[in-house]
């Protein structure tokens, strides 16, 4: 007997919902492709964040389409959207909002009242453009919003709309006028996606679309209700104990043996040599949810070890902190994650 309160209580309902999800996912990808040429892996990463309820951080040099991708995604969704251009003089209240004095007529007398004026964070999709152009103080204004989906001002908590996503772009930290994001904020991003240059054919297509006067119309294909429904569906995908254990060991393998915080049981020699702090439990959550999303898109009923391996890089690269030796020798966290994923056994006795 189907549960009226559970839309996925029977295998038939799960299958129908999965088919609808794949169709809507493809339709959303097609709309984005109208404006964004190539970068399919990056598009898939952003859409994975969308359907798992996570936030996305896109890093790359200026002019390669990071902002365009997020704006196009917003146009293809029937959600409220706001853009914050991060600059060195931006203040936390410019993002979250502030309490203002409001004058109102009451019984013929003017009375002053305090009223909270919402900032641009009160939207369902927030584009934090060039987030590392602002100071760490302003960057940290997003911490509560990204984790709790709320803003606290003057002792009052204001809930953000649902669903809520922060899609941020940043320039490589080696560029002038940028500030590294605080570790606590980096950890709140579900994925960090590295956007590279376009190839020869893609660059020619970009010129064809942008220098000939052609116009592109992006049509909304999903609303808030269906997005939240698909987020629930992703969480209902099965994961076997040995697959979950692999994801757990993958995270634990980022913890160096000599760390003051413990760990090191599964660390590779490279991790022990170059890592100061490993990934947090949020990394394990990202690995499992993203692998479930991949399984659902592939038409499978359960996530696999290969799914976990495929999402390891965007889920872990920003959650590993290098020590002095690692930074001095130019070691990248991508190299470390690839080393861990390539050497960690699927099962242990």
Poorly predicted runs of 5 or more residues: none
CATH superfamily membership of the largest domain, which one? P-loop containing nucleotide triphosphate hydrolases
Q: How many structural domains?
A: 2
- The oligomerization state is single chain
The number of helical runs is 15
Biggest sheet features: 5 strands, parallel
Major sheet strand order: 3-6-9-1-10
Order of helices and strands: HHEHEEHEEEHHEEEHEHEHEHHEHEHEHH
What is the tally of beta strands? Answer: 15
Cα-atom radius of gyration: 22 Å
- Approximate strand percentage: 15-25%
Terminal-residue CA separation:
41 Å
How does the helix and strand content classify structurally?
A: alpha/beta
What is the CATH-assigned architecture of the largest domain? 3-Layer(aba) Sandwich
Describe this protein's structure.
This protein is an alpha/beta fold. It folds into 2 domains: 10-88 and 124-149 and 157-235, Rossmann fold; 237-349, Orthogonal Bundle (Helicase, Ruva Protein, domain 3), CATH 1.10.8.80. It is 43% helix and 19% strand. The protein contains 15 helices and 15 strands. It has helices at 11-33, 40-52, 66-75, 93-96, 136-139, 143-148, 183-186, 200-210, 224-236, 241-252, 269-274, 281-297, 305-316, 324-328, 333-343, and strands spanning 56-59, 77-78, 81-85, 97-106, 109-118, 125-129, 150-153, 156-159, 165-170, 191-194, 222-223, 238-239, 275-277, 302-303, 321-322. The strands form 6 sheets. It has a 5-stranded parallel β-sheet. A two-stranded parallel ribbon has the order 2-11. A hairpin with a 2-residue loop joins β4 and β5 (109-118). α1 packs across α2 and α13 (305-316) runs antiparallel to α15 (333-343). The chain is globular and about 80 Å long.
């Amino acid at each position: 007997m189907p549960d009226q309160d559970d839309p996925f209580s029977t295998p038939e309902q799960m299958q129908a919902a999965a088919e609808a999800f794949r169709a809507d996912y493809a339709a959303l990808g097609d709309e984005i492709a109208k404006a964004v040429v190539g970068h399919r892996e990056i598009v898939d990463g952003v859409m994975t964040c969308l359907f798992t309820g996570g936030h996305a951080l896109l890093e790359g040099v200026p002019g390669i389409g990071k902002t365009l991708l997020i704006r196009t995604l917003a146009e293809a969704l029937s959600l409220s959207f706001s853009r914050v251009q991060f600059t060195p003089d931006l203040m936390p209240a410019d993002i979250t909002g502030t309490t203002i004095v409001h004058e109102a007529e009451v019984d013929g007398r003017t009375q002053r009242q305090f009223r909270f004026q919402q900032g641009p964070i009160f939207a369902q999709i927030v584009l934090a453009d060039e987030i590392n152009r602002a100071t760490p103080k302003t960057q940290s204004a997003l911490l509560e919003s990204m984790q709790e989906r709320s803003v606290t001002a003057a002792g009052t908590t204001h809930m953000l709309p649902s669903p809520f996503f922060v899609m941020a772009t940043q320039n490589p930290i080696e560029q002038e006028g940028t500030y590294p994001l605080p570790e606590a904020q980096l950890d709140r991003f579900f994925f960090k996606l590295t956007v590279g240059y376009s190839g020869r054919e893609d660059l020619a297509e970009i010129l064809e679309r942008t220098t000939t006067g052609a116009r592109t119309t992006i049509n909304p294909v999903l609303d808030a209700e269906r997005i939240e429904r698909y987020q629930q569906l992703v969480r209902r995908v099965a994961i076997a104990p040995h697959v979950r254990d692999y994801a757990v060991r993958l995270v634990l393998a980022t913890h160096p043996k000599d760390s003051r915080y413990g760990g090191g049981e599964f660390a590779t020699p490279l991790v022990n040599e170059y890592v100061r702090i490993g990934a947090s439990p949020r990394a394990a959550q990202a690995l499992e949810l993203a692998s479930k999303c991949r399984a659902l898109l592939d038409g499978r009923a359960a996530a696999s070890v290969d799914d976990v391996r495929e999402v390891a890089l965007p889920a872990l690269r920003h959650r590993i902190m290098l020590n002095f030796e690692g930074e001095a020798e130019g070691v990248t966290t991508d190299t470390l994650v690839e080393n861990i994923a390539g050497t960690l056994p699927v099962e242990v006795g």
